[in-house]
């Protein structure tokens, strides 16, 4: 039997590469004769660079940039031919903020990554947006690339209070925002209201912070602020669109780079997974994207996840035949203490049902 193994990371426990290897190890214990094709996935968030480097090759460049609160932060660019890939979470990720200081956290380091890519000869820069701990509308990125304003652009959302004018830099490098988030910059479905709480912005501060981003939109381009994806990564999508960038679905970009559609057609079964499989997975997460590709190839798709929070009806709506919970199978303590071993054991159990 041919099995395509295409999981996302299990946030906080396993990278996508580690998850794929654990699933393969367990599956082989039960079905050693099966042919396994490992395709670790990412949607633009953490793991974006690792997954693309494994699939595309290219040169990894180590750089040091300004972190969300000004601290020197190591990051890595992937350069292949004249295209550079940037994982924005490396410079402004939630893991760097700890869910604190979102009002003053800056994306300046992301702009420094883009500048480093251009210095390395890139004429096209693809930025994976996801996992951000910032909410500055991409103002920091703009500052790092030469934008000026009547308020500081590199002091987070709080620095934007009272902004009335922004001078954008001339920028002739092609920018691509890789994200499946389609939220606008501001408003009820904007970056602050939807994603602010998970970055540590208290409920009573959301209207204030959203107001700062509205001022940035008025000072630049209100029409762009309404565009799909402008609210991605705390408004990084907005900044990239302001500079003439385009938006591509993150999962689609990665799947294309990996040739996932062709690999799914060559398989008999597709396995994917993530830390928590719930109905929000429809919003551009890896399992939903992989399940769509499996469906187009007329192949069944199953999910192995840390936790499963959807019923069978919702699962079918997401294009998934079955979903299996690591916590339910191994217990919460072991799932976190030995995630690779527990996932391998779960994969072995699933192989009993699905391997012919």
In short, what is this structure?
This protein is an alpha/beta fold. Helices cover 39% and strands 19% of the residues. The protein is globular and about 65 Å long.
Task: Characterise the protein shown here.
Helices cover 39% and strands 19% of the residues. The chain is built from 17 helices and 13 strands. Helix 1 packs across helix 17 (339-354). The protein starts with a strand and ends with a helix. The model has no long low-confidence stretch (mean pLDDT 95).
Descriptive tags:
globular; 356 residues; transferase; 5-stranded parallel sheet; alpha/beta; Glyc_kinase_flavodox-like_fold
Give a topology summary.
Elements: E1 2-5, H1 16-30, E2 35-38, H2 48-56, E3 59-66, E4 72-80, E5 83-87, H3 89-92, H4 94-97, H5 108-119, E6 124-128, H6 139-144, E7 148-149, E8 166-167, E9 174-178, H7 191-195, H8 206-219, H9 222-225, H10 236-242, E10 246-248, H11 250-258, H12 260-265, E11 269-277, H13 286-296, E12 301-308, H14 312-317, E13 322-325, H15 326-330, H16 332-337, H17 339-354
Parallel strand pairs: 1-2, 1-11, 5-6, 6-9, 9-10, 11-12, 12-13
Antiparallel strand pairs: 3-4, 4-5, 7-8
